């Protein structure tokens, strides 16, 4: 009976060996994915008037630079406004944000680490 239970638990991933292996793998994954969220403010005169093709070109340039930088930085999305572009990135540190800006030829006029995110659902949490 005890052997059947051990086999069943092992198949379900609950043996002590499986748990320790899974925990170690999860910790490695967690540490690797431990990226800060940043808000980057880019002053770009008349950014709101950029054409679809121009925005696509900027996006391609950004993605190409990111491919060369590895997994420590990720572009989430950007908001294009009248004279600015506000970008949301995940990165290990601010230096990677600055490196991306330099290699891509993008301004990074203000870089702010995001402390928290709230939305309408936050009002309902208790």
Give an overview in words.
- There is one protein chain.
- By secondary structure, the chain is an alpha+beta fold.
- 44% of the residues lie in helices and 22% in strands.
- It has a 4-stranded antiparallel sheet with strand order 2-3-1-4.
- Strand 2 and strand 3 (84-91) form a beta hairpin.
- Helix 3 (52-69) packs across helix 4 (94-104).
- The radius of gyration is 22 Å and the shape is globular.
Observed structural traits:
126 residues, alpha+beta, Alpha-Beta Plaits, 2 domains, 4 helices, 4 strands, 22% strand, globular, disordered N terminus
Strands, helices and their partners?
Layout: H1 2-11, H2 16-32, E1 36-43, H3 52-69, E2 73-80, E3 84-91, H4 94-104, E4 110-113
Antiparallel strand pairs: 1-3, 1-4, 2-3
Helix pairs in contact: 3-4
Short structural summary:
With 126 residues, this protein is of the alpha+beta class. The protein has four helices and four strands.
What would you say the CATH architecture of the largest domain is?
Answer: 2-Layer Sandwich
Averaged pLDDT: 82
What is the overall silhouette?
globular
SSE pattern: HHEHEEHE
What distance lies between the first and last C-alpha atoms, to the nearest angstrom? 45 Å
Overall CATH class of the largest domain = Alpha Beta
> What's the number of domains?
2
Strand content: 15-25%
CATH T-level fold name of the largest domain: Alpha-Beta Plaits
The structural class is alpha+beta
Largest sheet: 4 strands, antiparallel
- Can you count the helices? 4
Radius of gyration: 22 Å
Question: How much helicity do the residues have?
Answer: 40-55%
CATH superfamily of the largest domain: ORF SCO4226, nickel-binding ferredoxin-like monomer
């Amino acid at each position: 009976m005890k052997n059947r239970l051990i086999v069943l638990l092992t198949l379900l991933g609950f043996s002590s060996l499986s748990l320790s292996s899974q925990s170690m793998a999860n910790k490695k994954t967690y540490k690797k994915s431990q990226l800060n969220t940043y808000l980057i403010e880019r002053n770009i005169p008349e950014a709101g008037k950029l054409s679809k093709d121009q925005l696509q070109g900027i996006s391609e340039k950004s993605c190409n630079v990111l491919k060369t930088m590895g997994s420590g930085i990720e572009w989430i999305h950007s908001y294009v406004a009248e004279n600015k572009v506000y970008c949301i990135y995940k990165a290990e540190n601010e230096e990677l944000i600055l490196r991306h800006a330099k290699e891509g030829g993008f301004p990074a006029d203000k870089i702010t680490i995001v402390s928290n995110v709230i939305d309408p659902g936050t009002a309902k949490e208790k």
